[in-house]
Amino acid sequence: MVSEKARIAILISGRGSNMQAFIDACAKGDLQADICLVLSNNPDAAGLGRAAEAGITTVCVNHRDYDSRETFDAALVHALAPYEPDLVILAGFMRILTPVFIEPFAGKLLNIHPSLLPKYPGLHTHQRALDAGDTEAGVTVHYVTPELDGGPPIIQARVPVEAGDTAETLAQRVIVQEHMIYPIAARWQLEGRLQLTATGARLDGETVPATGIDYAEGTR
User: Fold this and answer.
1) Planar angle of CA 109, 110, 116, nearest 5 degrees
2) Which of 9, 44, 90, 215 is found 20 to 30 A from 16 (Cα to Cα)?
3) High-pLDDT (> 70) share of the chain, %
4) CA–CA separation, 154 vs 77, rounded Å?
5) Does 118 sit behind a cis peptide bond, omega within 30 degrees of 0 on the bond before it?
6) What are the helix (H) ranges across the chain?
7) Can you tell me the distance from the alpha carbon of 162 to that of 220, in angstroms, rounded to the nearest whole number?
8) Do residues 201 and 194 touch, judged by C-beta distance below 8 A?
9) E strand or H helix at 159, and its extent?
10) Max CA-CA distance within the chain?
11) Rounded Cα distance, 141 and 124, in Å
């Protein structure tokens, strides 16, 4: 008997470039999974159209319709529940989530953040790296916990900061790495190789370094 594929739900707020990386990874077989739902808090998110064109079910839960973060998060949980996702991916979902949402999906909720965490949680990460005179920047996939951008890192990719870089040029190079490492972390999770524990993330039974595994070509 062939087991059913894992089910991934993806939350977006904008154009969904990381969502597209997941669509491509599933189509190529790099991820043995189906995207069961793409959900957005923004009815105008371009990624909703991209998902629909790919034949994926889409839902909008507009945060403006709710009077608190907690009631919005409860609505998110209600919207996701019928799809029974094995993994929930935050892909440019521009909302601060509360425990109302995080706790039901603890250990199967991933986010990607455009900095080398723990550096630069929050917004404007590329400009902050430039302002600090950093010689490298990058991106981190991490588990989601109630601390904003503070969940245990899983994998990081680094890019050098080049002379004359702006936040925009740096972002263009970093996003290429985002699209490479996010599906890898998801695959590890779905294969049962990756777990969130009380002391951090573990991969293949080994503790993941505090800054995550360094991505390099050939990382499996």
Assistant:
1) 150
2) 215
3) 97
4) 24
5) yes
6) 17-28, 46-53, 69-80, 99-102, 125-131, 167-190
7) 28
8) yes
9) strand 153-160
10) 57
11) 17
Condensed to tens digits (0 to 9), the pLDDT of residues 47-62 reads: 999 999 999 999 999 9
Here the tokens at position 208 are 């993941």
Residue that is written with structure tokens 């969940």 in the block: 151
Question: What residue type is assigned to position 105 of the chain?
Answer: F
- Per-residue pLDDT of 9-47, as tens digits, reads 999 999 999 999 999 999 999 999 999 999 999 999 999
Catalytic pick among 113, 126, 142, 179: 113
Residue whose token pair is 């603890």: 106
- The encoded tokens of residue 195 equal 């777990």
- Cβ neighbourhood burial of 35 (10 Å; 0-12, 13-18, 19+): buried
Q: Which residue has the tokens 């404007």?
A: 124
164 φ/ψ angles, rounded to the nearest 5 degrees? 85, 0
Cβ contacts of residue 50 below 8 Å, gap of 6+? 15, 16, 19, 20, 23
Q: Which of 146, 202, 75 is nearest to 210 (CA)?
A: 202
